[in-house]
Amino acid sequence: MSKKIMIIDDEPDILRFLEQLFQDAGYQTVTAGDGSEGIEIAARERPDLITLDLQMPKDTGTAFYRKIHRDKKLGDIPIIVISGIAGRHLAIRKPVAVFDKPIDKTALLQVIKDTIG
């Protein structure tokens, strides 16, 4: 069975880009447009890894991270930060990796493979 990646980003173009990239690499995907939706979907879908944008209008990636990190069932899911804002490494304590936009596809897929197979 293929691994499942959840993509949380408020930019539809980024969501579609990452969804296609991950599906082409053999992963299942689920998407969320903000952190609030992300928490609900993560609880229901139990993804193997989450890619997280930090700057979103409704519920920030940082707020999402704090909520999921405190959740006993979801807190161990690896998170990769994908963001265009400076200082993003300070917002999340232990991301698996941090990527700038535009995204280096090869490096991102390698980190995912190394993390979840």
Indicate the multimeric state: single chain
Describe the strand arrangement of the main beta sheet, using strand numbers. Answer: 2-1-3-4-5
Largest sheet: 5 strands, parallel
Report mean pLDDT, rounded to a whole number. Answer: 89
Shape designation: globular
Write the H/E string, N to C. Answer: EHEHEHEHEH
Helix content: 40-55%
Can you summarize this structure?
This protein has 117 residues and is of the alpha/beta class.
Characterization of this structure:
The structure is a single chain. With 117 residues, the chain is α/β, with parallel strands linked by helices. It has a single domain (4-116), classed as 3-Layer(aba) Sandwich (Rossmann fold). 43% of the residues lie in helices and 20% in strands. It contains five helices and five strands, in the order E-H-E-H-E-H-E-H-E-H. It has helices at 12-24, 35-45, 61-70, 88-91, 105-116, and strands at residues 4-8, 28-32, 49-52, 79-83, 97-100. Strands 2-1-3-4-5 form a five-stranded parallel beta sheet, sandwiched between helices. Helix 2 (35-45) packs parallel to helix 3 (61-70). The longest helix has 13 residues, at 12-24. The chain is globular, with a radius of gyration of 13 Å.
Q: Which features does this protein show?
A:
alpha/beta; 117 residues; single chain; 5 helices; 5-stranded parallel sheet; Rossmann fold; globular
